[in-house]
Amino acid sequence: MSANLYQDHLTTRKNQEAQAVQLLVELNTLANKGVNVLFFGNRIALNLVDIIAHHDKNALNIADTLAFATALNDQNLSHTTVDLGQALKAGKQADSFTSGDEVPATDVVLYGFGRIGRILARLLMSRPASDKGLQLKAIVVRPAGEADLEKRASLLERDSVHGWFDGSVVVDKANSGIVANGRFIKVIYAADPSEIDYTSYGIDNALIIDNTGKWKDEAGLGKHLQSKGAKKVLLTAPASGDIKNIVYNVNDDTIGSDTIVSAASCTTNAITPTLKLLNDKYGIENGHMETIHAFTNDQNLVDNHHKAERRGRAATLNMVMTSTGAAKAVSKAIPELKGKLSGSSVRVPTPNVSLAILNLNFKNPVNSSDELNAFIKEATESEQWQAQIAYSDSDEAVSTDFVGCEKVAIWDAKSTLAQDNRAVMYLWYDNEMGYSTQVLRVAETMAKNV
Predict the structure, then answer these.
(1) In this structure, are residues 385 and 446 in contact, taking their beta carbons and an 8 Å threshold?
(2) Can you say whether the dihedral through the CA atoms of 122, 135, 439, 31 is positive or negative?
(3) Which one, of 281, 285, 287, 290, lies nearest residue 382 by Cα?
(4) Over the chain, what is the mean pLDDT?
(5) Range of the domain at 26
(6) Is there a single domain that holds both residue 193 and residue 333?
(7) Same domain, 271 and 228
């Protein structure tokens, strides 16, 4: 390699960084106006490396994006979503976008602060500061010892799977709270929802996101609505009874004015969007779903008593056969699949990222793996599905590659097997991050449906 070639690459990178700095200013201005900026369905981290990587990956020039973002700011666009990548790809003009309705502020309370609760807090606190949209005001945990506040803050800041929190976390002991990225979060200690008066903490008409899994029916979850200052409840687990199990972009249009809603399970969210695509295209006759699932908190680290079958055996040493209601839950989002799918699960010794295997029989012929992969790839590049389903065609992809992925599922093209009317397909999913992203989408829909 010649010295000139080294210099050419260095010069190109310097130019990219200079343009990215200017783009950062425009993106921050748009964010302050309530414009949600995406890049092919992905959130753009406001740093130079992330911006340049997005452009290199999609073979787009930062200069073009900068010009487009500047034009959006010139027309004072506000309160809407713009996908810069899709806009440039389609050759759209900035004046083709219009401002949306102002999004009111909605107080949010995380009831429970385990794996999902902390990921939700991270996602909410990673957004630009705003007095509109979802506002995380408090977390509710069980009464605990004197150093509990510091421990909660530490668990938010440090995570063995997802790494350090992107920002600052400070304990405000005097006010019994945590300050994350400059925003105060009250820590409320309670053993039951009925004990809490949220209005006494300046919280009202709140959306309660229940991460405990303790209550799954209307009677139990209805306790939250008895709390003064609570307005709606979102459960981060499959619900029972008549409570709607919602998978965003599949049946979120059915939420309406419901005050109690479930965001279903991580596995249901991982497979349902893809099943909808496949059913709409080929028609699903029947099939089986198997999930190879990371172990979870409800298993034992070492052999010990457990009320559930097999889950008492050491999670870090064993593959554990267990059940899953994900296949059955799919029919709540896609009614035409009722009774057509069976499902089972194996918990494996890995702390995060799971794999769903779909073994399906279709009404219409799939013909080949290449045809099926091409269909899914096109869908993942569409505005409708790009934020939820990703496409991987790497021979080297393994589970840890998808830690932190905010897509609800990643199609593994190299593993697809299809012939005639039958196919076996593999979907990776970060069962913590991908699911939590879906939960927040449902939460935003509930907040809008006043």
Answers:
(1) no
(2) negative
(3) 281
(4) 94
(5) 3-96
(6) no
(7) no
Q: Examine residue 439 and state whether it is found in any structural domain, yes or no.
A: no
Active site members: 266
Same domain assignment for residues 303 and 420: yes
Give Dmax over CA atoms of the chain in angstroms: 73
Provide the token pair at 408: 């609800």
Q: How many domains does the chain have?
A: 3
- Alpha-carbon span 156 to 167, nearest angstrom: 11
What is the chain's Cα-based Rg?
23
194: domain CATH number is: 3.40.50.720
Q: What is the pLDDT of residues 11-39, one digit of tens each?
A: 988 999 999 999 999 999 998 888 999 99
Closest CA to 435 of 123, 37, 224, 140: 123
* Residue 253 maps to a domain: no
**Reduced to 3 states, what is the DSSP secondary structure of residue 156?**
helix
Same domain, 299 and 425: yes
Phi then psi for residue 38, to 5 deg, are -120, 165
Distance CA 429, CA 246 (A): 18
List C-alpha distances in Å: 366 to 305, 358, 369, 409, 424: 47, 14, 8, 21, 11
Same domain for 201 and 120? yes
Answer for the pair 129, 183: CB distance below 8 angstroms, yes or no.
yes
Check: pTM over 0.85? Answer yes or no.
yes
What count of Cα atoms within 13 Å lies in the side-chain half-sphere of residue 179?
7
